[in-house]
Amino acid sequence: MKSDYEIANENSMSPISAIAAEMNLPAEMLVPFGHNKAKINITEFDEQKIAKSKLILVTAITPNKAGVGKTTTSVGLADGLHKLNKKVVLALREPSLGPCFGMKGGAAGGGFSQVVPMEDINLHFTGDFHAITAANNTLSSLIDNYRFFTRGKPEGVRTVLMKRCLDVNDRSLRNIVTALHGPNNGITTETGFVITPASELMAVLCLSEGLEDLRNKIDEMLLGFTFAGEPFTTKDLGVTGAITALMKDAILPNLVQTLEHTPALIHGGPFANIAHGCNSIMATKTAMQFGDYVVTEAGFASDLGAEKFFNIKCRKAGLQPAMSVLVATLQALKLSGGSTEADMKQPDSGKLKEGLRNLQKHISILKTFGQKVLVVINRHGVDDEKEIEFIRNWCGENDAAFAVNDAFSLGGDGAVEMARAVIDICENPSPPLQHTYELTDDIETKMNKIVQKIYGGDGVVLYKKAKDMIARIEKLGLSHLPVCMAKTQYSFTDNVAKSGLDGGFTIDVEDIVINKGAGFIVAVCGEIMRMPGLPKVPQAKNIDVVDGKIIGIS
Question: Does 105 have pLDDT greater than 80?
Fold first, then answer.
């Protein structure tokens, strides 16, 4: 089979105006970025149309080195629904340059199930990430400037909470000291960088419902505390207008297409292990306004991305998903069951059965939210048909629908079984969401409920820094905010070496970050880093420009 790059570059894309016309998008809303991508200038939503649209979440089992192909499945499902003449819009996150040049490579799907133009989407796209990075670092510069000129005064800022950001994996920037070599360079401060997807401004963009809401959220961002102990916000700094100006265009959703010309909105890109892991409300609501079916995804597995999708994004936006698709592969299940990478492609009923414990756990998590679940096996060419049928029968015995996705090899034709199963479930969709916690719960109770109900652990252990921040949260009257757990994606625990399937563990909360503008609290668990590092052999070594074309990012 040809490479993702070859398949994408042999594809003939439709003009973006034709994709917009298929959505019945008014021409005046389309802001073209060349021939193949555009922004959508939507200023208000039709909530009645949105309420009628069927929102489908794609999530996955716990990730491991085998991979599951969640984005490939999402794209395939949209193409499968399109094949069945359904009015469908895909709504995904934008890829980050950090993973593209680090461990993961591109994030635009794979095989015959991709969004295009693939190189643009994976690299600079329409500049949204750059705008967020520039806005974040401008704000950091402005608060440092304010500190310099108000040093020693009661209104001066003593403690700065905000960190600078870059859309790269760079472990050397996690902890730094600024303003060295003399007082004219500013106030010497121990600080650090986070990756752009973990910045509060990324979350602010993704949880805003328009330019005015974006402005209000930027206003509310808590930048630090004064010498008098008072909270200090962007509004207090008086620069909300400037930061909003830098993000004015970034707030607009981006329109592209799949290889089969299905409309796709790709906008916003917070990670699910260190942020809330969902694409923007702007993109999701726009897709729902113009599509009868909307396929979206949340990062990593159901314990991270899906939990935050339901408890943070859906709660804030008033969204009600019709159902959830839970993606797995035979190889990933066997690896979870104790197989080795060398043997995971071989038939092994014992390791497969053991791996089903992980699948069962994720089905249970989704059902705590009241979701109807479709288990999808993302087929690989080496898969054993008897093992696929075994899982099909197992799902029937465990009250979960089942389908096979072969979109990687066959495009939309290979996703028709999955699409038909989705249509059937959506005829009688899931009941109203059942959230993991109440917003009236205190912060520690919210964290304990997530650990107990979602991860299957005993609760949290708060370190001193986290306890001190909770005291500040209570003093500021912010205990009503939802909680975003920043935790490893490779385990239900905060320790990669322990799966957590047997329970009997606690989650260490080292620190808490107040994202007042975005409207949630981040609990930093275990040794999770909000600025990733590069692997020993980064993906950047495979990226090049040959005959004027970019290669190696798939």
Answer: no
